[in-house]
Amino acid sequence: MVLFDLPRELEPDPEYVDEIAVDLACRGERVRLTRPEFVEAVRRLTRGGESTRQVAERLRVEAWVIERVRRALRQARAAASATDEVA
Q1: How far apart are alpha carbons 38 and 75 in whole angstroms?
Q2: Which residues 6+ apart lie within 8 Å of 56 measured at CB?
Q3: How many whole angstroms separate alpha carbon 73 and alpha carbon 55?
Q4: DSSP conformational letter for 9
Q5: Please, which pLDDT band fits residue 28 given cuts at 50, 70 and 90?
Q6: pLDDT digit string, tens, across residues 5-27
Q7: How far apart are alpha carbons 39 and 51 in whole angstroms?
Q8: Dist CA 70 CA 51 (whole Å)
Q9: Of the candidates 48, 49, 33, 47, the residue with the CA atom closest to the CA atom of residue 77
Q10: Is residue 53 a contact partner of residue 63, using CB atoms and an 8 Å limit?
Q11: pLDDT grade, residue 86 (50/70/90)?
Q12: Is the sign of the CA dihedral 72, 75, 79, 80 positive or negative?
């Protein structure tokens, strides 16, 4: 049955961020996150001033994982600001 002219099979958006899942993870609850959701959780927690160790404990992962995500976030910000300067 197809309602409202929606396709029979929906393709999930790989960049979709479930805000509720991120909020729960940031509160320390055990939640399975996609990669974009995990990155968003790290971004929020580090923006709040938490250390790498604190973020790792909150998200229940090893600290090296958080360091890798933080490095990627810094690189993304640098690339974005370089693009803004060119435009």
Answers
A1: 17
A2: 62, 63, 65, 66
A3: 14
A4: S
A5: very high
A6: 777 787 888 899 999 999 999 99
A7: 15
A8: 11
A9: 47
A10: yes
A11: low
A12: positive
- CB atoms < 10 A from the CB of 25, how many? 24
Residues 36-72 pLDDT 10s: 999 999 999 988 888 888 999 999 999 999 888 888 8
Tallying the residues shown for the chain, one arrives at: 87
**CA distances (Å), 10 to each of 5, 13, 79, 87, in order?**
12, 9, 32, 36
pTM, whole model, 2 decimals? 0.74
Residue with tokens 């001033």: 49
The C-alpha atoms of residue 2 and residue 21 are separated, in whole angstroms, by 29
How far does Cα 3 stand from its chain's mean position?
Answer: 32
Q: Provide the pLDDT for residue 54.
A: 92
